[in-house]
Amino acid sequence: MVCIAAFIILALIGVFVALISIFKPKIGKAYLKALKKAWGCLWKKVRLQKCETGFKDDVKNTLLSRVMLKHPSWVKPLSVVIEILSVIIVIIAIWAVLTAIKSLLALWALGSCNVTKPSACSLGAEICSIDEAEPSNPLEATGRWFAEWGEIFEAIPDKFKTYVPEDYQFNYVDVNNGKVEGLTTVVDIFDPGCSVCMYSYRNQKEAGFFDSHNVWLVPFAIQDADGVYKFKNSEIIVKYMFAAEQFRSGLSLSIIDKIFTGKNSEDISYQDKFNEDYSREEAINKIESWLKAEGINDSGIKEIRTIADYPEISDKIAENKRIIESELRVKGIPTILIDGKKHTGLWKAN
């Protein structure tokens, strides 16, 4: 293990030695000589051959040369320490390489290099992530590390899959109020509290996306592992969208359009108000005021309020959650199924 650890360390300091050797070529030559010996030893280990003991002894003798002269009795225990440190260095190096490979595979297969907390990956798309519970102890962390490999390998076939909206039993809002002949059907999954979803919606609306596609809007309130909603009023908004749509087709679109594009008298976005200021009661009152503005009378408002509390509505939300997280393995939204592909992140107009 000593020669393998030596190769790892020599490889890591290679850049610094290269800079120093510009001014002191002898250091560069000595470094290359040691690196070649370490590589030769490593290559033999890979081929399951016995490594030359000479290089291993050279490393130990270099590290222990001063100790041999002053404290000979320390040589044996320090030699054991060097062996142990070598094993630790090799284990850390292997773990680092495997983690790098896992992150790259996750980025390709799932769209984020961090499987548990997608938003922590700066290389992924701009999303509102669907995070999983963080491990609370080393044992859970180890189990989670291996479980992430499983998620990645399960998701790899999805990269070659053709996504057909009709294959999924979504509960959705039909923007076009029925399929328009000649237009492609797309699924648009969003959270009313997600700022990235808001900007995607604005881009789509400005570009005429809803006129050029048959769009199924799938409202989805992101929850963490404990069932707490990522945005505090998303759940009630989603419930009212389904309730309003059940009461009258197309009515729910006015709710999401106000949240994503509207502002109050203080020029504050309604999405910010729902996420940061409104209590649950205030959120309900605001939504109902918008429905009244759409011509719904008091009895109609009462009926919509009753529908929103139906178990059927909760079942719709739960079914969407199952499809999104289990069947589609979505790690962040907005996510759009379009032209047979799954696109996650901010939608930008062409």
| Strand tally | 7
User: How widely separated are the two ends?
Assistant: 55 Å
CATH structural class of the largest domain? Alpha Beta
- Total tally of structural domains: 3
Kindly report the spatial arrangement of strands forming the biggest sheet.
2-4-3-6-7
CATH architecture of the largest domain: 3-Layer(aba) Sandwich
Estimate what percentage of residues fall within beta strands: 5-15%
Alpha-beta content class? alpha+beta
Number of helices: 14
Main pleated sheet: 5 strands, mixed
* Cα-based radius of gyration, to the nearest Å: 30 Å
Mean pLDDT comes to: 80
Low-confidence runs (pLDDT<50, min 5 residues)?
none
Helix content: 55-70%
What's the CATH superfamily of the largest domain, by name?
Glutaredoxin
The secondary-structure element order is: HHHHHEHEEHHEHHHHHHEEE
Give the overall shape, derived from the CA principal axes: elongated
* CATH fold-type name of the largest domain: Glutaredoxin
Annotate the secondary structure layout:
Elements: H1 2-12, H2 14-23, H3 25-46, H4 53-70, H5 75-110, E1 128-129, H6 138-155, E2 173-174, E3 184-190, H7 195-207, H8 209-212, E4 213-219, H9 234-247, H10 251-261, H11 270-277, H12 280-293, H13 298-308, H14 311-327, E5 332-333, E6 335-338, E7 341-344
Parallel strand pairs: 3-4
Antiparallel strand pairs: 1-5, 2-4, 3-6, 6-7
